[in-house]
Design a protein that fits this description.
The complex is a heterodimer of chains A (171) and B (211). Chain A has 171 residues and is an all-alpha fold. Chain A has helices spanning 11-29, 36-50, 52-57, 62-66, 74-93, 108-129, 133-142, 146-166. Chain A is globular and about 50 Å long. In chain B, helix 3 packs antiparallel against helix 9 (165-189) and helix 5 (107-115) packs antiparallel against helix 6. The chains are: A mainly alpha (171), B mainly alpha (211).
């Protein structure tokens, strides 16, 4: 289990493979790759399960559940592939580890609390922005969309600013 | 050149989606993006993989799309281009950047983290679901902000700046080369980049932290 893992791909190689996958996605589907749309569907499906009336009546999520089968759709199949690709990569390279990954100075409880809080910010932010690093940054950027580059500028600026506050969590 | 096949195919079927997602996942995992320590090291300047991989991918796909259009394979305006809503995208992007630094992932890489065995990625995903609920619960109040400062529909950089696409791509290529060089220099100074052995090897067998 703890054999030495194979090194990560050089960033240039990973970037070219990712760029070709993105280009192929545009040619096949007419749109780019995404991720946060799937988690919106998960939120709609779980909302439909625990509070069906509130979810159906919600002005944002209602449209996801009214037609039934809120999880069905292209982005769901794509994210299943995304997880499968990650599994194949991590298992064949010895890089799969069941662990709570954290910096050397933070405990498991605090790391999980930070992961949950960061997830809340990202989940809400992606709905506000109408997309995430994949859908807006990567896919929008590839079409040279102004929206994609506005997203990337604020994403990187806020990331650097926030890291000044949470650096101890990671280093 | 393409016979009777019209590109893009506008195929929303299961198998192409699964296959394209699979390559997406292989690339993210190969890049090391299942590791929140590697991802967040971008923001301590110790690891520039996030910038390098994203910028390379954008340049490759943008160049490919331009070539496909120039060669007549696809028509102009045939792929989806998002529209700017300045405040929503600026604030949403900032929330994602801050949440990334705090939580260690963005939505796509959280799936890669989960596929690499990271329990913290699963907790991050649960947080995202709660974040969507909070946004949905507040949507009526937020809606004016959500729709404010709408830009021209599907506006692209060449339209905004008034330069031809190949010139913009050439500028991007120069920025990419400069960014790779500067990034590698900073990585060396801060004891990076973060290697796989350091992340999953228990004892760090890769480069050690300089301090």
């Amino acid at each position: 289990m703890n054999a030495a893992p194979r090194p990560f791909w050089p960033p240039l190689v990973a970037g070219i493979v990712l760029g070709l996958a993105l280009l192929a996605t545009f040619l096949v589907t007419g749109h780019g790759l995404g991720a946060s749309g799937f988690f919106t569907k998960v939120a709609a499906a779980l909302g439909d399960w625990v509070a069906p009336e509130a979810t159906a009546g919600n002005s944002y999520l209602g449209g996801y559940v009214r037609g039934g089968a809120p999880l069905a759709g292209w982005i769901t199949w794509e994210v299943i592939g995304l997880v499968l690709g990650g599994l194949i990569g991590s298992l064949t390279s010895g890089r799969f580890r069941a662990q709570v990954e954290r910096g050397p100075r933070i405990g498991v409880g605090r790391r999980l609390a930070a992961a949950f809080g960061g997830g809340i910010l990202v989940g809400a932010g992606a709905r506000l922005a109408r997309g995430c690093t994949s859908g807006l940054g990567l896919s929008g950027g590839a079409t040279l969309a102004v929206a994609g580059f506005v997203f990337l500028m604020f994403f990187f600026a806020a990331g650097f600013a926030a890291m000044r506050l949470v650096r101890r969590n990671w280093t | 050149m393409t016979g009777e096949i019209a590109w893009p195919l506008y195929d929303a079927g299961f198998w192409p989606a699964l296959l394209l997602g699979l390559f997406f996942g292989l690339a993210l995992e190969g890049a090391g993006f299942g590791s929140p320590r590697k991802l967040t090291a971008q923001f301590t300047l110790r690891d520039f993989a996030v910038f390098k991989v994203m910028f390379t991918a954008v340049l490759v796909a943008a160049t490919g799309l331009w070539l496909a259009e120039t060669a007549g394979l696809i028509a102009g305006n045939s792929v989806y281009v998002p529209t700017l809503y300045f405040w929503a995208i600026a604030l949403g992007g900032a929330l994602i950047g801050a949440g990334f630094a705090l939580g260690g992932y963005c939505p796509g890489t959280s799936a890669t983290g989960l596929a690499s065995g990271r329990w913290d990625a699963l907790v991050f995903i649960a947080g995202m679901v709660v974040g969507v609920w909070i946004f949905a619960g507040a949507f009526d109040a937020i809606e004016p902000l959500y729709l404010a400062a709408e830009g021209p529909k599907s506006q692209t950089l060449d339209q905004l700046i008034g330069l031809p696409t190949p010139v913009i791509l050439a500028v991007f290529a120069v920025v990419a080369v400069a960014g790779f060089r500067l990034g590698s220099r900073l990585e060396a100074r801060f004891g990076g980049p973060v290697g796989a052995a350091e992340i999953v090897g228990g004892e760090a067998t890769g480069r050690t932290r300089s301090r």
